[in-house]
Design brief:
2 domains, about 40% helix, disordered N terminus, single chain, three-stranded antiparallel beta sheet
Amino acid sequence: MGVIPAPVIADTKSAMADDDRLEEFEGPVAPREESVAQEQLARREGTVTAEIFEAVRVDPENLVQPVRLKPEDAFCFSCHKGVSCWNKCCYGADVTLTPIDILRLCRRLGLKPREFLERYTVPTIWEKAGLPVAKLKMRGEDGKGPCSFLDEVEGCTVYADRPATCRYYPLGLAAIKMRDVGGKAEFHFMVKEPHCKGHEEKKTQTVAEFRKEQGVEEYDALNSGWIDILMKMVSWKTLGGPGGKDITPQTQKMFYMVSTDVEAFRRFVFESRFLDIYVVDPDAIEDLRTNDEALLQLGFDWLKNVLFNEPTIAMRENVLQQAIARSRTELGGV
């Protein structure tokens, strides 16, 4: 897809290329003594804003209205077959797929995640966070053709399971991580691209009404852990990554596996030493065998623990003590 202005990650075949080495997983070396230094750096993080869902194409002419919209704010917009720009937004679109987007589309198409990724996406780096994501592949050699799911007459053929970016349009969603404040704040903004005539329609709705109509609440709830990680990494990237270090290829691979291929992550959990290393409730373990959404949440918790030392998942006590001893040895301690 030629229009993506970011380097493509090397492994385009699989979200987890090391399936045959799952048994080698020994868990992260955590917590290291250097975690104290990481926390001190974290407290010095500045206010960071990042647009999670924005315009449907990368174009310097895109007109983003720099007004923070509240849920009760109203705007005029409608998209339907009768509008003169019908389907134009589906050409050369720049659509980053969230974990829930991929789950929903895989189910609709009857595809396994790996098959879906190879057929309909291209991996790239989300530069704001330095983490890999999957983008929806457009037709055409230059990547400016129609979306693979577009029917010229009927429109989107996967409309009920369309990605979050498509649901939000023409609204954008931005998240803010405030200095010295835990969590994040979110707000919406308006995107007015030259091609879009939907803004000339007379239909009026509030932001809250539009969100409900487009069904984004469920998407936001299920994607929240993923967005938290992206925002944290946007903040950390100004310091060169967690602990002042660059993001390693292994970290990128872990994030991509959890975010895009729930089946690969399930193999990782059940076929490696993961469950010997981490404390997971027995009832939850059985649910994780079939519940993709629950498995995603476990993946986000695991990544937060590995990347940021957050207490979102606990290591077993004997493993923890071994990890501390190993880290002290590596750091030259006693």
